[in-house]
Amino acid sequence: MDINIKFSKTLKLIRKSKGLTQEQLAERSGIDYKYLQKLESKNPSSPTLQVLEKLSFGLGISLQEFIKEIEEKE
């Protein structure tokens, strides 16, 4: 599976498990809501390391945990 697809699916799964909407996560992470929608789409763009760090903060997990979850996604 493509790494961008793994990332997109993992992001959505973790966000939902935390009970967050896209709007809430975007606000907590300090990223644009439309950009977050793109990251969770079927054709996601590649996030920068800075964006991954912001999303991790917004999700309340460490960057290492987030990357580990992405790597483990089948």
Describe this structure in words.
This protein has 74 residues and is mainly α. Helices cover 69% and strands 0% of the residues.
Quick recap:
This protein is an all-alpha fold and 74 residues long. 69% of the residues lie in helices and 0% in strands.
Low-confidence stretches: none
Helix count, DSSP H or I runs of 4 or more residues: 5
Helix fraction, binned, reads 55-70%
Q: Averaging pLDDT over every residue, what do you get?
A: 94
SS strand fraction? under 5%
Note the quaternary state here. Answer: single chain
Cα end-to-end separation: 7 Å
**Can you count the beta strands?**
0
The major sheet is characterized as: none
Please compute the radius of gyration using only Cα atoms: 11 Å
User: Quick one: overall form?
Assistant: globular
Structural class by sheet pairing and helices: mainly alpha
What is the H/E string? Answer: HHHHH
List the helices and strands and how they pair.
Blueprint: H1 3-17, H2 22-29, H3 33-39, H4 49-59, H5 63-72
